Amino acid sequence: MIETHGLTKHFNGNHAVEDLDLQVKQGEIFAFLGPNGAGKTTTVRMLACLIAPTRGEARVAGYTVGGESDAIRAHIGILTESPGLYEKLSARQNLDFFARLYGLSNSARDDAVKKHLEMLGLWERRDEAVGGFSKGMKQKLAIARALLHDPKVVFLDEPTSALDPEAAKIVRDFIAELKSEGHTIFLCTHNLDEADRLADRIGVMKQRLIQVDTPENLRRKLYGRRVVVRTRAVNDALIAALKTLAFVKSVEREDSRVSIALDDPDAMTPAVVRALVQAGAEIQSVGEEKHSLEEVYLNLVGNHQT
Ligand SMILES: Nc1ncnc2c1ncn2[C@@H]1O[C@H](COP(=O)(O)OP(=O)(O)OP(=O)(O)O)[C@@H](O)[C@H]1O
Ligand SMILES: [Mg+2]
Fold it and tell me: Do 7 and 121 lie in a common domain?
């Protein structure tokens, strides 16, 4: 649904996006992470045909950026960093206006406007001027606007940044629902937990694409896989017992926890547990260690030289 080759944007010598090669499949949620100024919004703006690339190629929804920009605009929805709504118009009038621009028929327009206002919890406030809306309400309205014409690809640039926890959850659930309907979602976010929960794959960007993979694979590439065993007491005999197992790659001891590096925890954990029990361990819990996406992200961005 999205494919780029060497996509690049320079602003007067400022290399905002450099040689981006990316593929996003239909029905995928792709989260785009990176520090402020990394080029995320610039990438979205190129893919949505709002600005022209300096060089490189991109296809979105089967159409070429540049040559077929009108077709792309008809098949995508975009939530930009600033909502860009008409403050004097009501919520309903705003959506109705944009639905007309998208060319929806009268009845389709009324249905789409009602459906989206209800879904995002704004139906009660539909006739109030948007100028009096809170930041989060405007954000929700802008999300509704991006979806009115049932686009194949949805670009969401920090959709939950202005929202309270409850509203953010509504929007996240909504994004998951869009995916289940087959929409492709390109999500820029600074909320790593959100990316971890929603995304099929994550791209980490800092002018160039640093890494792209599933959240699990990003963790494994950086940290390998480790099983953590908590026992009533850790002693040298337990550590020695673990080290006799040929497939144990390393053992780290920390208070009443032992962390064991394994290539294949699913296959190897039973033998580890047996060895520990035979050595007299009183095991309280066994589980795979899970690094937070924040650790992964900071490691990738921190170690990257541009
Ligand atoms: N219209 C513009 N004119 C000049 N420079 C620009 C323009 N738009 C973006 N830039 C520059 O391009 C770089 C990337 O900006 P961009 O907005 O894409 O970053 P971002 O990853 O979206 O950051 P953030 O997380 O803060 O939203 C920045 O150095 C920015 O100053
Ligand atoms: Mg941005």
Answer: yes
